[in-house]
Specification:
Helix content: 25-40%
CATH superfamily of the largest domain: Vaccinia Virus protein VP39
Largest sheet: 7 strands, mixed
Number of strands: 7
Radius of gyration: 19 Å
Order of helices and strands: HHHEHEHEEHEHHEHHHE
Number of helices: 11
Strand order of the largest sheet: 3-2-1-4-5-7-6
Number of domains: 2
Length: about 260
């Protein structure tokens, strides 16, 4: 996980500003699924807090949160966000070596950072850290495809291939519900999807895409100016000037309970 964390160095401030949070409802509805008496939630690969914020908001005041993040830049912004909340502890660590005692957590959550993990290493650590009856959950935000998003990603993929900036994540895909069900020490997995929406103007869409690691890899190869210019031109074809376009999102939650 550490090697992937370095790809996001320098992106933390933008990530915190322009990445969408996860719906608090998704975390709130995980709580009754845990039958453990451990009131500790762990956010693995917490980034700058886009998942920690709604999770903290969804948890009862009696719960504590440990936000684990290996990236120095991300961890700096994360710690700043929760410096006045004693119930949130920000700590350096990776998904494959969680800095927590055995059986200490009632809820272990990994959001979109999962594709950066070594899956088997993470599941072994989740098995060790999650208390019997506790819940392991994977969450992912996915933008519902639109002509705008499809044109942007087609352009980015084409430009990245030409610049030699494609990032192969085929070995780090998110597990299916069936695969999650087969993880040793856990019960049959389930899933649920939440749909929600937001609006963004042209610049808001550009700023969001500039937080994606695939786009930032391209920026590092060809420079920020050309990438921004291309994204702005695409947005201008789909969003009227001085207006905002609706963006539809799906948040998928996959969860399983510790035996």
């Amino acid at each position: 996980m550490q090697e992937h964390a370095e790809r996001f160095e320098g992106l933390a401030e933008a990530y915190a500003l322009y990445r969408p949070d996860y719906p608090a409802r998704a975390f709130r509805e995980l709580l009754p699924l845990s039958t453990s008496d451990r009131a500790l939630a762990v956010d693995v690969g917490a980034g700058p807090g886009t998942s920690t914020r709604p999770m903290r908001a969804a948890l009862p005041a009696s719960w504590l949160v440990t936000a684990v993040e290996p990236g120095r830049d991300m961890r700096r912004v994360l710690a700043r966000s929760f410096r006045e909340d004693p119930r949130v502890q920000v700590t350096d660590g990776t998904a494959e070596a969680l800095p927590l005692p055995r059986g200490s957590a009632g809820l272990v959550v990994a959001c979109s950072a999962f594709h950066c993990f070594d899956a088997q290493g993470f599941f072994a650590e989740a098995r060790r850290v999650t208390a019997p009856g506790g819940v392991l959950a994977l969450l992912r935000n996915r933008m519902v495809p639109t002509p705008l998003s499809e044109e942007i990603m087609a352009h980015v993929t084409r430009a990245a291939r030409q610049a030699g900036a494609l990032w192969d994540i085929s070995g780090h895909r998110e597990p299916t519900v069936r695969e999650l069900s087969s993880v040793e020490g856990f019960k049959t997995a389930r899933s649920r999807t939440y749909r929600w929406s937001e609006t963004r103007d042209r610049r808001g869409v550009v700023d969001f895409y500039l937080t994606r690691s695939s786009v930032w890899s391209l920026v590092r190869r060809v420079g920020l100016g050309p990438v921004m210019r291309d994204l702005e031109e695409i947005c201008a074809r789909h969003i009227e000037k001085d207006t905002a376009a609706p963006l539809e999102w799906e948040t998928t939650v996959k969860w399983t309970q510790r035996r």
